[in-house]
Amino acid sequence: MRTMVTTLLVGLSLLTAAPSASAFGKHGGPGFFRGRGGSGGGPGGESRLPLRLLVQQMTPEQRGQVREVLMADRGARHDILTQLHAAHEALSDKMLAAGTVGEADVAPLLDKIAGLHRQLLQQGAKAMLKIRAIATPEQLAQAAATKQRVDQLQDEMRKLLGRPSDGDDDAPME
Questions:
Q1: Could you state, in chain order, the average pLDDT of each consecutive group of 10 residues for the chain (174 residues)?
Q2: Domain boundaries in the chain?
Q3: What are the backbone angles phi and psi of residue 62, rounded to the nearest 5°?
Q4: Which of 39, 61, 95, 164 is positioned for an S-S bond with 11, CB 3.0–4.6 A?
Q5: What is the distance between the alpha carbons of residues 19 and 1, in angstroms, rounded to a whole number?
């Protein structure tokens, strides 16, 4: 019984954590476009900080080229995200299925999810490399300097405010 409860808790933890580990907002994948730390924040938030910092330095013509790269990338990203959503649903269904569920039962689904996260990361890296190629060396340097300053400010905020607590983190689970 204890193994089943442990497996269920680990599975539910994965289901909770995996969708927030994101390359493109809330949809899964390691945090490639994320600023240091940070929760991502979705559209308009920290999730695309390096991209936003670079595009901020660009001319309107360059921004149009970036828009074309992102539009071309959208279809591939959408396909991966659709598969990722289905894989997360399958894992959720497996974890909540009647009967005994062990690590061997969920391993193929976890492998599939990990592979899709990797594909999403690779897709994001390809798009960012194309966008990076549009920028001038001066624009790249300015974006890097701005990111460094943003990171410093975030560190200062953490030192001043501390990390938010979700309550009683040290309480044992029963």
A1: 42 41 38 39 55 92 96 94 97 94 95 97 94 95 93 94 65 53
A2: 2-160
A3: -65, -40
A4: 95
A5: 28
